Amino acid sequence: MLSGVETRSVSPVFVGRTDELEALHDALARAATGEPQALLIAGEAGVGKTRLVEEFTTAAGRRDAVVALGGCVEIGADGLPFAPFSAALRALRRELPADVAAAAAGQEDELARLLPELGEAGPGRHDEEGMARLFELTARLLQQIAAERTVVVALEDLHWADASTRHLLAYLLRTLRTGRLVVLGTYRSDDIHRRHPLRPLLAELDRLRTVRRLDIARFTRDEVCRQVAGIIAGEPDPDQVDDIFERSDGNAFFVEELAVAAHAGCCTGLTDTLRDLLLVRVEALSESAQRVVRVVAEGGSTVEYRLIAAVASLAEDDLIEALRAAVNASILIPTPAADGYRFRHSLVREAVSDDLLPGERSRLNRRYAEALESDPTLVPADQRAMRLASYWYHAHDPAKALPAVLDASVTARRRHAYSEQLGLLERAMELWDAVPEDVRTHLRPHDHAEAYPACGCDPATTPLRYLDLMAEAAVAGRLSRERERALKITKRALRLLEDDPDPLRAAWFWSQRSRLVQSLARGDGWAELATAQELVRGLPPSTVHAEVLTAVAGWSMLHQPGAEALAAAERAVEYARMVDARSIELNARLTLGGLMVDSGAVEDGLAEMRQVMERAIQEGVPPVAGRAYINLPSELEAVGRSREAAAVLREGAAYARKFGLLDSESWVWGNLSDSLYSLGEWDGAAQAAENALRRGQSAKPQGTGALCLAHLALARGDLAEAERQLAASRGHFGSHDPMPQQRLPLARIALGVAAAQGRLLDARAELERALDAGTPPGTQRYAWPLLLAAATAEADALTSPAAGPGRERTLTRILQAVKQLTTAVPIWQAHEQWVRAEVLRAEDRATPDTWSPVVAAFEALERPYDLARVRHRLAESLVTVGGDDERARATELLRLSHAVADHLGARPLADATALLARRARLPLTGPAQPEADSADPAEALGLTSRERDVLRLVSAGRTNRQIAEELFISPKTASVHVSNILAKLGVSGRGEAAAVAHRLGLYAEALPVRAGR
């Protein structure tokens, strides 16, 4: 028997792993400086991953780090959603209750999905960003807790991790940037086969430079010798060490089992299989102890004592004696909370479970399920539904399993564990036909399937249908980004609806299919939406009807804006109001407002969008409010009101971040980058574009960020970077779903790069393709810059003989397009004048009279870079005319233009102004001033002390409100100071004022430019 070595089955000596421990301690030291660390510890089963983590976390605790352990829980073949994170957060809450409460303040109802102890989880919103919102809040929680102390979060057995846990881990490791946090994860490398669900995550994390992987190797013979010596507390026999090393192949757990068996004198009875070796100590137990071990093996990774007692059906004394024997034999160990038991090593549990007979396994699962149904308090409340569903399913009782599985799917949805919800719904569909009709008729859509609208039926009396399950599963697949599975479900549902027609349900599935087709880059989704629209035509108003019309209006706004899109949006609003679908109505009104602005009803459209944003915020509809924070400033930017747009976008970034609307936040940053570019705040524009790339979860908002960076790089003359970001943007946008708001800016950048590289024919080809694809009404914001870039390229190539052929055709095409574009607001009136002036320059017919009105138009706008460019053109034409007055005026224009270019880092414009000044022999700097004057240029300009302070903040990109806050004055007073400064400097905008201050060296140190955080 094993009684002589029962208490020495775990080696008291920690052997080897010097390099791995050093890497872990190095990570702890780095984390202590505020640099988060992430490490993945890989190794085969039994190699010593858990022992390494225990050794490290013990040492970390001695260095005042707070350690939180969480393990992936396996129940049969099912993992509990978020189990390791829930366990780790629970541990943190036990150690730091006040800190966790402070970090979770205001978001308890969301975070309760992971940590039920925080309170009741709210109903929440089930949308594309629901899971990402929970992830963002979790990351913030950990970041805040780790702000003042070092925290180690260790997640074990990731090979069992559920999909939601994998998604959360990936998000956490991608986004953590600050905090004294170490995140460890362990997994069995020998379990990760080609189709294992953890494999894609490992590949993704391998690409992150912030994640390190430690591969735990098997022990050498010397290390095996030291381990055996520790186990037997003496010097082992060399031959015995050789035998153990050969049979274990250096696996630490098998070394231990072999050493214990050999020391007990029962080695001769072993077979050659290691699986049999794992069962040796089990078989040495009494029959009642073996029975208890088999019960625990089928109950899950950890089983509560009261649940074991209910299933084992032993007298309490007999049960305790059996458990004591299993613990003394180091087969089972008590849980840290002392309320249950688990196997000391999962390999033993797997060996015991595999040894169960099929009938024995299903009988044990039935007893677990019956015990849990009889007394739900036997397990923690957050695990109850999932475990009951698993027990009944593995008991092979469809009639009991189906309701339990459906209840578990609802629990998963409430926790935003959409991947697990999808898996459970697929299991329910698998069980459906095997369940008696009388059981199915008692199931209700209201209880188990809320995705598909009721559409007139009474959910309290209408039985649940198979199609309801499919609808719920399709939405769960979309929300969990398992879009391929969701698309297959919608196809199957539509095939079923061919045999049993139901136009409203079919329209709903076609609408879902449209979204999935777009997400999977299989098309633009219009064919599917058009089918849905046709199916609801003539039907009474319903939520589905309103939803379809709103989707059609939204699609049309992005792809084919114009009168038809406007009419579709008006119908969508009308239908949504008829059925009292408030969030659908607000979405439709937002679309309508944008289309009104594009059609020329600027003020009415903007007012409608502002009202929708205010109502969405007041009524607590964050997805609509988030969309309003994107679309309203986009329309403001489209009509040249960049300063207003930037203010709304800064609010929007904070709002989206507060509510975890990550894609919305990414769109907001991209739009802010556009507005800051227009305002001449290019450093802020670059930071905003980087934020768009970093915060975006989906491809298209990230594509916008890359496009903004490409635009900046082109203006700054970095053609290689412009090409790189252009390619990245195209990759994000894809070619399956062309939209004018993406297609036209991409063409403009590609055209600009080609022209800058002297590839005029390629530039012309880009223009031809873009114009052939069309510039629908409402796309003038994107079309005018494209036409300007094309006309400028032709004018710049005027003297090139190779450019002659084809020029006339290109210029004609440009002017034809000009006639089709609206000039309803000053910004586009100015652009029309600019494009026509560039066409005249390309024809060698431009004069100062051509350019003077263009300069005057842009002087009325806050567009410092555009104004600098047209001033350069006016100076160029004045130099050509000659004359003292013309040269004097050209000199001042070039100085202003060069100062702006230099301030922005716009190298091509700076070089062009410098070259023109050199050729015309015009000074870019003023004549030498007396020493007394040059000592204080601000005084020479007549600036008061307060105006100097204001100009300093203007140069740093501050708004009037921000200036007022920093100088403790009112925004109105700040506005008056800014107006006085512009007049004294002789400039028309804040960007030019900043450029003049920069050129004159008024401030030795610049304040940091805000990026709207």
Report on the architecture of this protein.
With 1013 residues, the chain is mostly helical. It contains 51 helices and ten strands. The two termini are 68 Å apart. The radius of gyration is 35 Å and the shape is globular. It has a five-stranded parallel β-sheet with strand order 2-5-6-1-7. It has a three-stranded antiparallel β-sheet with strand order 8-10-9. The N terminus and C terminus are likely disordered. Strand 9 and strand 10 form a beta hairpin.
List the helices and strands and how they pair.
Elements: H1 18-32, E1 37-43, H2 49-62, E2 66-71, E3 74-75, E4 78-79, H3 83-95, H4 97-104, H5 108-111, H6 130-145, E5 151-156, H7 163-175, E6 181-188, H8 198-206, E7 211-215, H9 221-232, H10 238-248, H11 252-263, H12 274-283, H13 287-299, E8 302-304, H14 305-312, H15 316-328, E9 332-334, E10 340-343, H16 346-354, H17 358-374, H18 381-394, H19 398-414, H20 418-431, H21 437-440, H22 445-448, H23 466-479, H24 483-499, H25 503-519, H26 526-536, H27 543-559, H28 563-578, H29 582-599, H30 602-618, H31 622-638, H32 642-658, H33 662-678, H34 682-695, H35 699-715, H36 719-733, H37 740-756, H38 760-773, H39 780-796, H40 807-820, H41 826-842, H42 848-859, H43 864-881, H44 884-904, H45 907-920, H46 931-934, H47 937-940, H48 945-955, H49 960-967, H50 971-985, H51 990-1000
Helix pairs in contact: 1-2, 3-4, 4-6, 6-7, 7-8, 9-10, 9-11, 10-11, 11-12, 12-16, 13-15, 13-16, 14-17, 17-18, 18-19, 19-20, 20-23, 23-24, 24-25, 25-26, 25-27, 26-27, 27-28, 27-29, 28-29, 29-30, 29-31, 30-31, 31-32, 31-33, 32-33, 33-34, 33-35, 34-35, 35-36, 35-37, 36-37, 37-38, 37-39, 38-39, ...
